[in-house]
């Protein structure tokens, strides 16, 4: 599978790359939510969290942590959101797994992630039972 992000990783199209290794590449988001918004991708074009092999995911997250720490040291944000969208319903627009590093400054209003809801404890139990069954840990 070839995507716009694999073409960036292969340097076939330009991007502002900040770090890379044999498994992952970090580059500046072209439409940043805040100053210093970086995307971290796997070199290989797995579409999402459901398809990426665990070892590759760990490599992506290792580079994401390295770059997040560098953002912390260099830009001194008040915080950083790590966002990773899977599926159009979750806001994914590029179907090549990527992790967003979004530096935040108090009161910047850069990102609204969710509105907290309300639920009953028995509903939590029911949903947890479904997830545990799929994990096969029971
Ligand atoms: P998603 O909505 O899929 O989680 O995020 C896709 C992100 O990729 C968006 O933040 C968008 O600005 C960024 N993006 C899309 N096309 C390009 C591109 O060609 N170059 C770069 N650097 N970023 C891109």
Descriptive terms for the model:
19% strand, 3 helices, globular, 5 strands, alpha+beta, 31% helix, 138 residues, binds guanosine-5'-monophosphate, 5-stranded antiparallel beta sheet
What does this protein look like?
The protein has 138 residues and is of the alpha+beta class. It has helices spanning 4-9, 54-75, 121-135; strands at 17-20, 24-28, 38-42, 79-83, 98-104. A hairpin with a 3-residue loop joins β1 and β2 (24-28). Bound molecules: guanosine-5'-monophosphate (5GP). The site of guanosine-5'-monophosphate has 13 residues, from β2.
Short description:
By secondary structure, the protein is of the alpha+beta class. Helix content is 31%, strand content 19%. The protein starts with a helix and ends with a helix.
| Helical content band | 25-40%
Low-confidence stretches at least 5 residues in length (pLDDT < 50)?
A: none
Sheet-strand content, in percent, reads 15-25%
Average pLDDT reading: 96
Main sheet characteristics: 5 strands, antiparallel
Alpha carbon gap, first and last residue: 36 Å
Q: Number of helical segments? A: 3
Strand order of the biggest β-sheet: 1-2-3-5-4
Number of separate strands: 5
**Class from secondary-structure proportions:** alpha+beta
Q: What is the global morphology?
A: globular
Order of helices and strands: HEEEHEEH
């Amino acid at each position: 599978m070839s995507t716009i992000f694999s073409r960036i990783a292969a340097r076939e199209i330009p991007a502002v790359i900040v770090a890379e290794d044999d498994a992952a590449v970090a580059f500046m988001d072209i439409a940043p939510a805040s100053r210093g918004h970086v995307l971290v991708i796997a070199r290989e074009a797995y579409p999402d969290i459901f398809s990426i092999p665990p070892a590759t995911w760990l490599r992506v997250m290792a580079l994401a942590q390295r770059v997040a720490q560098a953002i912390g040291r260099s830009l001194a944000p008040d915080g950083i959101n790590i966002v990773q969208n899977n599926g159009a319903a979750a806001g994914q627009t590029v179907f090549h797994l990527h992790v967003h590093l979004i530096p935040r400054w108090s009161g910047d209003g850069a990102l609204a992630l969710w509105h907290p809801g309300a639920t009953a404890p028995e509903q939590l139990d029911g949903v947890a039972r479904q997830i545990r069954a799929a994990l096969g840990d029971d």
